[in-house]
Design brief:
Family: Belongs to the acyl coenzyme A hydrolase family.
GO biological process, one term: fatty acid catabolic process
Number of helices: 2
GO molecular function: long-chain fatty acyl-CoA hydrolase activity
Number of strands: 6
Order of helices and strands: EHEEEEEH
CATH class: Alpha Beta
CATH topology: Thiol Ester Dehydrase, Chain A
Structural class: alpha+beta
Distance between the termini: 26 Å
Strand content: 35-45%
Bound molecules: coenzyme A
Pfam families: 4HBT (PF03061)
Helix content: 10-25%
Keywords: Hydrolase
CATH architecture: Roll
Length: 129
């Protein structure tokens, strides 16, 4: 799993119990999955279709640095299934894991569109062509 993005937990990210608000974390994960899918599928029109069980394993506090990791589970026809893990950067303790997040590539009309991809690509390799 590659951990692409780091976040710094700030006062505006906390819930009334002074720990990281779960909704904020899901927002960060959703955006990370969207960016990952847009880059992999080379299509800016990608939506989140499905998220499997969300398991908050530990919490984070103000000032913590967390990192968001993404792995590909499966390339489908119009879909890309991802796995996500968020952990504390310094302690490596897992904060949340989500086993299946299904992102769908769309056409201009908002209908599922085959993406034609079957393996992870790196932008640096595309730029060599
Ligand atoms: C995404 C959307 C176009 C899919 O429409 P649909 O009629 O379900 O399309 P399909 O049945 O052709 O499925 C498309 C793909 O999604 C997958 N899929 C559909 N429902 C799924 C579910 N409940 N769980 C997992 N995967 C699912 C299908 O397996 C298919 O994958 P494949 O093309 O790789 O085989 C439609 O549901 C939609 O617009 N949803 C709203 C998305 C949204 O607004 N998200 C939040 C904002 S980003």
């Amino acid at each position: 799993m590659r951990f692409h993005t780091r976040k710094w937990v700030k006062p505006q990210d906390l819930n009334p119990n002074a720990s990281l608000f779960g909704g904020r974390l899901l927002e960060w994960i959703d955006e990370e999955c969207a960016l990952y899918s847009i880059i992999q599928l080379e299509n800016p029109k990608v939506v989140t279709k499905f998220m499997s069980e969300i398991n908050f394993k530990s919490s984070a506090s103000q000032g913590d640095i967390i990192e968001i990791g993404i792995d590909v589970v499966k390339f489908g026809n119009a879909s890309l299934t991802l796995r996500c893990e968020v952990r504390n950067k310094m302690t490596r303790e897992t904060i949340i894991s989500i086993e299946n997040i299904v992102m769908v590539s769309l056409d201009e009309l908002g209908k599922p569109q085959a993406h034609g991809k079957s393996e992870i690509e790196f932008v640096k390799d595309r730029l060599k062509d």
